[in-house]
Amino acid sequence: MSFLDELNPQQREAVEATDGPVLILAGAGSGKTRVITFRIAHLIEHVGAMPESILAMTFTNKAAGEMAERVEKLVGGLSIAKPVISTFHSFCVRVLRRDVEALRTPSAVPGQPPIGLTKNFVIYDESDQQQVVKGIMRRLGLDDKQLTPRNVLSRISWAKNHMLDPQEIYLESADPRNERIAHIYEEYRKELRKANAMDFDDLLLEAMRLLKSVTAVREYYNRRFQYILVDEYQDTNRPQYELMRLLAGDRHNVCAVGDEDQSIYSWRGADIRNILEFERDFPEAKIVRLEQNYRSTQNILGAASAVVANNIRRKGKNLWTSRQGGAKIGYYEAPDGENEALFAADTINRYLQQAVEGGENVRAAVLYRTNSQSRLFEEAMRRYQLKYHVVGGFSFYERAEIKDMISYLKVIQNPDDSISLLRVVNTPARGIGKTTIETIERLALETGLSLWGAIGEGIQRQLLAGRTVVALKAFRDLIQDGRAMLAGTLVERLDESSAGNEDGAADAAALRSSGRTRASVPTQGEESPDTDFDPGNFSFDFGASADEVDATGGELGAGAIRDEIVVSANTPDTDAVEGFRTPGGAANTAELLKFLIDRTGYIKLLEEEDTPEAFSRIENLRELVNAAMDSRDRGETLDQFLDHAALVSDADQYDEQAQITLMTLHAAKGLEFPLVILAGLEEGLFPHSRTMLEPDSVEEERRLCYVGMTRAMDTLVLSRAVYRRRYGTDMPEASVPSRFLEEVPPQLVEELGGSRRRSAGAGVSRARVPAPHDHETTHYSYEDEDQSASWDPARVKAKAASPVRGYNSIDNIAEFFASRGKKFNVPRMPVEPPTGRRGFRPGQRVKHPKYGEGTVYQREGDGEDAKITVQFPRFGLKKLMEKYAQLEKA
DNA sequence: CCCTGGTCCCAACTT
DNA sequence: GGGACCAGGG
């Protein structure tokens, strides 16, 4: 029996149509991932395709990793070679790291190196981009209030996603504002080129340009990849579409899988035309529709379908499920955001308690439109002592200390990266202040050098005060030593006079001839195509135990550096290093990091700060070193490590083991949960205020709502806050129920909580109604409130005086769950939410997730702000905020 | 040059 | 609730 027998006829058709182009229109929950993985397995096992000749593109690294895992399970033992499963962006980076220099053009000046990006380009993230644009606008005197860097950047990104260059934007612009944007765009491109840097959009564009204009490269990939698969096809933009076509070559063995109802990235350039033009560009395309949903109950599917049916721009489809009936859609109307969050926590708490006996797949998610909503839910979960995971928000790599160290690494990889250089040149403070930076920047502008080049020039030309020169030299030496470590150079430091006389080309030659710049890479051969495409699993394990941090002596792992040292044209360089011998060759990223931390005194300075925040930063840095060691163990080079850091996405943090996950609707794409709470269904929040003027954007919001609703397997609860605070302390504002609520068929909805479902249009007025800024309203009982009546502060006061009960709707909710039958037979909730773990006393044994067991030494402060000092056998005394430390009784 | 504290102005989604 | 920016004292 073949694994294909597990598929339904349509799925099987999609899997077996391996010859020629296929478009699979896969409804929510219709087994899309299954079809893709089975298709890959089928290609390998039955069609006889070489695994490495299959390329699958996904949107997140997480999805890529999962897919790879599932394919492995199906055909694991068959071959050592693996299909390439990767995100578009990661794939492009690898293509570019290999061949980007084929795009360089000869310099007009004889003897000068060619112009264009080199292999050790860096990737600029959004904040780097901001800095570039800000700098340009300041230089051009365009930094007024009307045109913010943010604005400009989104226009630049828009232009790139639509494959328009600055000239085209300029020609299209009908007003001075857009002309200015075109001008800044032009300068922005120059700056990035000078910095040997690309932004996210460039990764796609440049890879596309490379495949388009360099025949040899295109042919290499056309030979290499016989079968192309694209997941989440509805969310591809034009450059991605072009890439797919280029990679498909003449063979046209492409398979695109998507669902137009789940297109939620048009603002990032996703183009619905890609689906339409698929049939135009590949006229022989076979179309397969997957319409059986295996995930949700009929009620959930019916509600979601009814909502999305209000969209005009869609093909329309008939999703069906064999899971008849099911629980009704719950709807809860909370008086305010805090209460909404408590309701969510309580609902999940009950669900978990109930499900423990039942057993497996006990998972719940709270989905919301904007990241800023997460805070309320986090607080509520903590009050209920529920362990939760937040996906997105402030990522590890955005933390200041991590960005600092990553910036150091980026400068070491590519000293021309002026943005990273600016970030670290005086971090920690080493006496290089504003005036010095301005001098260097002016020098860079005059000479056309990068900042790094200008620093060398400034020192050499003695344009700066003695003290400043000393500081700059210290910085330069640090970077050069790092570079030399990376190169594995063993040259003794030359004396100052000759070290000052630098010549990039000569040094590069010296590096090469030293014979140590080539580290042995454990590959199966020079031309083996497998070495540049490992299956892309980008997840870093930050969970490695802390004792590992100090466990790497001087031993070198499989760490290999890139096979050639590229010294860029305007980068003077020396290879001289003293004191940091790296026996056996080049240093790996982890060693380099430790060297940087040590030499900059970064951790030492944090230790001296002696605050909980500083300690948490130190921990973050340790985690970074852990990540670098994992990277080393995978045999990765510095640029691969940095690529990972740049390309990890929010959605990659999703942990399928977690019982409770909080995330945005966007991040939830592709996931499923037995219980989903979809929160904040208010006009202006969802649909978001910025979308409400354009019908097309509202349709996208509606698709987003559809995506959210169809994540639910068994139970879906919608909620809304009647009053919501914008920005921390502002007056709460009355909200209007989201239009999407009205679109859910009433017979499928069961109201939870005391307030009646208002009739359409009879809700709270659209006008901003000031609400009482009385914090007690959080737990204000809502039972007999007539919501359409105007808010009465006196009544609120009276209610607030009565004992706190959370929201009032306990009985109703219990009933709601009871109606689920055996699945959730909910007991009455405790009157008070649990108050959190507090009260660790001196002498008590405690357990910390990172530091292990220890003894409480002293306790300061009380309640929320309590700090306790704990003696850990291995880590010594640590002062911790009790609130955050996740301490448990040992 | 460096650090601090106050004030402004903000926030949609993300590779 | 908080990041970015600036003024002013050390």
**Beta-strand percentage?**
5-15%
For this structure, the quaternary state is single chain
Model regions low in confidence, pLDDT < 50 over at least 5 residues? 490-532, 534-584, 754-838
* Global geometry: globular
Q: What number is the mean pLDDT?
A: 78
Structural class: alpha/beta
Polypeptide structure, described:
The strands form 4 sheets. Strands 9, 10, 11, 12, 13, 14, 15 and 16 form an 8-stranded mixed beta sheet that branches. A 6-stranded parallel beta sheet has the order 3-2-6-7-1-8, sandwiched between helices. A 5-stranded antiparallel beta sheet has the order 20-19-18-17-21, with no helix packed on it. It is built from 30 helices and 21 strands. The two termini are 52 Å apart. It is an alpha/beta fold. Helix 5 (126-139) packs across helix 8 (176-194), helix 16 packs across helix 17 and helix 23 runs antiparallel to helix 25 (612-633). The protein is globular. It binds a DNA duplex (15 and 10 nucleotides) through helix 4, helix 9 and helix 18.
Key attributes of the depicted protein:
890 residues, alpha/beta, 8-stranded mixed sheet, 6-stranded parallel sheet, 21 strands, 12% strand, DNA-binding
